[in-house]
Design a protein that fits this description.
The protein has 453 residues and is an alpha+beta fold. It has two domains: 30-138 and 310-338, D-Maltodextrin-Binding Protein, domain 2 (3-Layer(aba) Sandwich); 148-306 and 380-440, D-Maltodextrin-Binding Protein, domain 2 (3-Layer(aba) Sandwich). The protein contains 20 helices and 15 strands. Strands 1, 2, 3, 4, 7, 13, 14 and 15 form an eight-stranded mixed sheet that branches. A hairpin with a 4-residue loop joins strand 9 and strand 10 (223-224). It is globular and about 70 Å long.
């Protein structure tokens, strides 16, 4: 009996060792490469691509990709994992923590992986300090373009005799008033989701960059200038005061805001290129809606060129350097994720606007989703440059909180006063907390001219 118990216990030990080996990716010569992201909108297609890799080239190379997508707590999740040594081999870097992770050694340069120089060279001339590069070293690569437009409910516009989309923010306010007055409590001109701080960036100050020349930081004078956003905020605040904004904005988040548009109860909203998926799949808008240009402050062309984000996909975690063999396999996985072939498929499904035009050239068909072509139509654009806001700590409300506070039902400050106060707090903190050479690293590249000549 004792002998049998010993054999059973020994068997459990071997099983435990086998499972541990599997978790570390060492079983049967297969290395499990862990990849984490918060890109939920592309998960289904990405998992199909990964399955094909795991069953094909991955099998040949002894690589299995383990892919995990996280939700709204992504930043806290990856930060905790990094601090406890549980971070994966590859993960999506976020502007709120990328510098922190680099300084702590949680994120390592792409050149830490073998044979990456030629791959990185494909992006020569497109890599930006403090966005993909830090202290001259490359830590990530741009994957797709994020663009900014407006969406309108064409059926609501037609019912209200509004033939053309608004050309100025003053017209936005006037159209919103007309739609709301005629809506009998069922239709409203505009909507806000003040429970989601990120809408201040995605739907307000980044889309207004072609009116400001930047999205909050002047890269020529090296100072924060959110004061330039005040005229846009004044028009939105005016809509709140007019009662033209969908009721309950203070208790709504971004999804609830967009769901109301999809239900046909809101006349117009700012929108981001990822909203193509929202209005076609997440909250299908079963009516005639259109993607139009962001309004200007005055009639005529905007003073500055259209600005778009070059969005990064993956960075390399310290776990990838566990051994030379693992590093080589992580390099294979990184190149797989960034391959033009995979991006072409993403483009065909209307999930991304590729950063590299070569991926578009490989596509076998154009995406069919309503609105995608309009979001992808950004001729003569420039890439948005990063701000040093994540490198300083300011007293009081954050940038997004300050912007949204001016749009509350009972604001404590008018937009101009609030933006001037925000600039003062940010510029004071920057001068006190950052070395001059760090501030200088945010200067616009020589020869960059974003004026709309």
């Amino acid at each position: 009996m004792k002998k049998n118990m010993f054999i059973a216990l020994l068997g459990l030990v071997f099983i435990g060792l086998f499972l541990t080996g599997c978790q570390n990716g060492d079983a049967d010569g297969v290395t499990v490469i862990r990849v984490w992201s918060d890109n939920a909108h592309e998960r289904d297609l990405r998992e199909e691509q990964i399955a094909r890799f795991n069953e094909g080239r991955g099998l040949e190379l002894g690589i299995e990709i383990e892919y995990t997508v996280f939700g709204s707590g992504w930043v806290d999740t990856i930060r905790l994992a990094a601090q406890t040594g549980e971070a994966p081999d590859l993960f999506r870097p976020n502007g709120t923590f990328i510098r922190e992770f680099i300084d702590a050694g949680f994120l390592v340069p792409l050149t830490s992986l073998p044979d990456m120089e030629d791959f990185i060279a494909k992006y020569d001339g497109y890599l930006t300090e403090n966005l993909q590069m830090f202290n001259g070293e490359v830590f990530t690569l741009p994957y797709n373009l994020t663009t900014y437009k407006f969406v309108i409910n064409r059926e609501i516009f037609d019912r209200n005799g509004l033939e053309n989309p608004p050309q100025t923010w003053e017209e936005v306010r006037e159209f919103a008033r007309i739609i709301t007055e005629n809506g009998n409590g069922d239709e409203f001109g505009f909507a806000l989701g003040l429970q989601s701080n990120w809408i201040a960036s995605a739907y307000i100050h980044r889309p207004a960059a072609h009116l400001m020349g930047h999205h909050g930081f002047n890269h020529d004078t090296l100072e924060f200038q959110f004061e330039r956003l005040a005229p846009v905020l004044e028009q939105i605040a005016g809509m709140v005061a007019d009662g033209s904004v969908f009721p309950g904005a203070s208790g709504m988040d971004a999804d609830a805001m967009r769901a109301q548009f999809a239900e046909g109860r809101v006349g117009m909203l700012p929108a981001v290129s990822f909203d193509v998926g929202v209005y076609n799949e997440q909250f299908p808008a079963n009516f005639n809606w259109e993607v139009v240009e962001i309004p200007n402050l005055v009639p005529g062309p905007a003073p500055y060129r259209t600005l778009a984000d070059g969005t990064n996909l993956l960075g390399v975690g310290a776990a990838a350097l566990e051994s030379p063999e693992r590093a080589a396999k992580v390099a294979e996985v990184f190149r797989f994720f960034y391959s033009d072939e995979n991006m072409a498929e993403m483009f065909e499904h209307g999930l991304y606007i590729p950063f590299r035009s070569q991926a578009i050239d490989l596509a076998s068909r154009q995406p069919e989703q309503r609105g995608f072509a309009e979001f992808a139509d950004v001729p003569n654009f420039l890439l948005l440059l990063p701000m040093p806001d994540n490198h300083v700590t300011i007293e009081g409300l954050s940038i997004n909180e300050t912007i949204l506070s001016t749009l509350a039902a009972n604001p404590t400050m008018d937009p101009l006063t609030a933006m001037r106060d925000l600039d003062d707090r940010l510029n004071t903190a920057m001068r006190e907390q950052l070395d001059p050479e760090v501030i200088e690293s945010f200067r616009a590249p020589a020869g960059r001219d974003n004026r709309n000549n």
